[in-house]
UniProtKB/TrEMBL annotation, chain A:
<dbReference type="InterPro" id="IPR051455">
    <property type="entry name" value="Bact_solute-bind_prot3"/>
</dbReference>
<comment type="similarity">
    <text>Belongs to the bacterial solute-binding protein 3 family.</text>
</comment>
<protein>
    <submittedName>
        <fullName>General L-amino acid-binding periplasmic protein AapJ</fullName>
    </submittedName>
</protein>
<feature type="signal peptide">
    <location>
        <begin position="1"/>
        <end position="22"/>
    </location>
</feature>
<keyword id="KW-0732">Signal</keyword>
<dbReference type="GO" id="GO:0006865">
    <property type="term" value="P:amino acid transport"/>
</dbReference>
<feature type="domain" description="Solute-binding protein family 3/N-terminal">
    <location>
        <begin position="33"/>
        <end position="262"/>
    </location>
</feature>
<dbReference type="InterPro" id="IPR018313">
    <property type="entry name" value="SBP_3_CS"/>
</dbReference>
<keyword id="KW-0813">Transport</keyword>
From TrEMBL, chain B:
<comment type="similarity">
    <text>Belongs to the binding-protein-dependent transport system permease family. HisMQ subfamily.</text>
</comment>
<feature type="transmembrane region" description="Helical">
    <location>
        <begin position="95"/>
        <end position="115"/>
    </location>
</feature>
<protein>
    <submittedName>
        <fullName>Putative glutamine ABC transporter permease protein GlnM</fullName>
    </submittedName>
</protein>
<keyword id="KW-1003">Cell membrane</keyword>
<keyword id="KW-0472">Membrane</keyword>
<feature type="domain" description="ABC transmembrane type-1">
    <location>
        <begin position="91"/>
        <end position="384"/>
    </location>
</feature>
<feature type="transmembrane region" description="Helical">
    <location>
        <begin position="127"/>
        <end position="149"/>
    </location>
</feature>
<dbReference type="GO" id="GO:0006865">
    <property type="term" value="P:amino acid transport"/>
</dbReference>
<feature type="transmembrane region" description="Helical">
    <location>
        <begin position="224"/>
        <end position="244"/>
    </location>
</feature>
Amino acid sequence: MKYTSIFATASAAVLMSTAAFAGTLDDVKAKGFVQCGVTTGLAGFAAPNDKGQWEGFDVDFCRAMAAAIFGDPEKVKYTPTTAKERFTALQSGEIDVLARNTTWTLSRDVSLGFEFIGVNFYDGQGFMIRKAMGVKSAKELDGASVCIQTGTTTELNLADYFRSNNMKFTSVVFETSEQIRTAYEGNRCDVYTTDRSGLAAQRAVLANPDEHVVLPEVISKEPLGPLVRHGDNAWGDLARWTLNAMIVAEELGVTSANAAEMKSTSTNPEVRRLLGAEGDLGSQLNVSNDWAYNVVTMVGNYGEVFDRNIGPDTPLQLDRGINALWNKGGILYAPPMR
Amino acid sequence: MATELHAVEAERPTAWRDPKIRAIIYQAIVVILFVLFAVYIVHNTAVNLERLGIASGFGFLEQTAGFDLQNDVTGYVTGQGTHLDVLISGAINTLRVAAVGIFLATLLGFIVGVLRLSSNWVVNRLAYVYIEIVRNIPLLLQLLVWYIVVILSQPNVRQAINVGDGVYLSNRGLYVPAVVPEAGFAAIPIALAVGLVLAWGFARFARKRQEATGQILPVIPVNLALVIGLPVIAALATGLPYSFDYPELKGFNFQGGWWLTPEFTALVLGLSVYTGAFIAETVRAGIQSVSKGQSEAAHALGIKPSWTMRLVIIPQALRVIIPPLTSQYLNLTKNSSLAVVVAYGDIVALFSGTSLNQTGQAVEIIAITMLFYVTISLLISLFMNWYNKRMALVER
C-alpha cells in the first residue's frame, strides 16, 4: 500500500506541486485581487454580459469579498470551472474561493478538504421536460433519457430517486450546461435535471421557454454555498462574515441606497457596528473597519443581489421562497454581528 | 628521441580528463538530480495532501459509486457497482472505441491514400481536399460537429425511421433486433471458429502449392465459403437455435433490441475520419517511396496491374507505412479521451471524471488512468513492432 501510494503520488505530483497555501488573505492582499472560481456560464448566477464582464448571483459574492478586502468590487479575477474541475482548482490553490452553485455535503466538507462558509441559496433538484410530452409528475418518468452534468451531486440524487421509485432511466452525461442545452433542444434526451434554480436559468435561454415545464417534485436538498480550502481559518472567517453581513444588512434594512445615510444618522447599535461607525468588527477580521459598508454600498445586501440577478423581475423569475429571511417566512438566518 | 617519447607518455589523461570517466560522472550527476527532484515532488505532494486533510489511498475503489454509467456494457448496476466497476466499464468503453476506430481509420486511410494517387483528376483532388480539411481542424471541434450532425440529422425518437424489419433510426441511435441464443446455439460460433482455422490452413496450403508448382488455387472463394458457409450449415442443421428480440417504442424510448448510441457513433466517426486523413498521407508517402522501377519491372514481366499493386508495391510500401501507422494508432487511442464532449462514457469521462469528482482522490485516479493509457499504448506498440519485423526486408 505504501509503495503504491508513493507511486501514485509521484505520477500525479505535477497536479499539486508547490502552490503556497498558508495565509490566503495575505496572499490576496499582496497580489491585489481575489481569484474567484465560477461556472462556465449559467445565466443569473455567473455569466459574462454583452460587454464581457462577469455578472450574476455568485459573481456578486466574489465582488462582495473584493469590496470587503480592497474597498473595490472590481478587484476580482474569474476562473470559469466545469463541475468536474472546480474542486481540483480550489485544492491546488489556483483559485482563492469557489462560488459556483456547489452543494454542501459531508464528504465534500470533510474528505475533499474544504470549508463551506455558509449557504447563499437553498435549492433542490428538479426535472424539466417538454410540455408536449404531457408528463405531470416525476413519477411518470420511467424509461426516460435524462441529460445531466457530470461531477455533480445531481448524478447521485438522480440514481437514488429512480432506484427508490423502481424506475429505469438512461443518462446522457455532459461536461458543461451549454452542451446539455444543445442535446436537450436537439431532443437527445427527454428530461433535463439539475438544481431548480439552474433549470430556471436554462429554461430562460431556451428558444421557446414556454414549451418547457419544470415538474413539481423536488427530489433533494441542495444547499448551495461558497467554499474555501480547509485549514485557512482567517480567510474562511472573512468569506463567512461577508456573506453574513449581506444577510444581516437586509435584515436591518440597510441597502446600497441608504447605507451612507444610515451610517451617519442611525442610532441602532447593530447598524452602527455593521457599517463600522462603532466597534472593531473589521479589524477583528483583519480588514478595514468599513468593510461591510463597502460590501453593501458597492454590491448590495442579500435581497438586492437576489432581486438583481435571479429575482422575479429577471428572466429567471425565481421567488425568494425558502430563501426569504427567517422573519419573513424563509430560513435565511445569519448569526449576530457583534 | 627518448625525451619525446617520455613527453607523449606524460600526456596520458588524468582521471578528470578521461572522457570515459567524465561521461560516467556526468551521468551520475544527472541521475542523482533526477532522483532528488522526484523525491522532492513526492514528499511535497504527500505533505500537502496531509496538511489539507485530503484522504488518500486506494480504499475508494471498494466504495459504492452510486451514479449511473452511460454506454455501459459490463452489466453495471447503479447502486451496487463500486468505483472499481466504474474503472472497468470506462476502460472497456475506451477499448471498444479504440478498436472500432482503428479498424475504420485504417480502412478509410488506405482507400483515400490510394485514391490520392489516382490518375483521375477529380478523385485525386477529392481525396486531397478531404485530407487537407480534416487534418487542419482541431479534433475537438470535429467531434462536436459530428455529434450535432448525428443528433440533429436524425428524426425525433417518436418519428423514428423504420429502416427494415425491426430496425429503427432516430436521434436516440440505431436500434436493431437482438439475437437471443437458444439451446444448441453454441454450434454456430464453433462452426465459425472451425471455418476460420480451415480458411487459414487453406491459404497457407495454397501459397506453398503455388511456390512449389506455380499452380494458383481459388483462395478467396474457397475461404469465403468456409467462413460463411460452415456457420450457416450449423445453424440450419441445429434448426435455427435463436430468436429475435425486436425493439419497441414503449413510453419514452425504444426498449429491447441492440442499440448503437449516437455518442458512440459520433466518437467513432470523428476519430476515424480524423485519423484516417493522417493514415492516408502515410499510405501515399509509403506507396510513393517504392521506386518506379519496381512497377516497370513488374509490367515488363507481364504481371497484371492489380497484382503489381498487391504483390510488388504494397509489401515494399508497408515497410515505410507501418512505423508511422503505429503512432497514428496510439494517437487515436489517446484522442478517444475527448469522449466526454460527446457524452460517451470512456475511462476519462467516467473514472477520472465522475469518480474523481465524487471521491476527490485526484492523485490516485489520475495515476491509474495514466497507467491504463501507458499499458494500452505499449501493447499496441509491441504488436505493431512484431508486425513490422514480420514485414521487414528479409535479406537472403
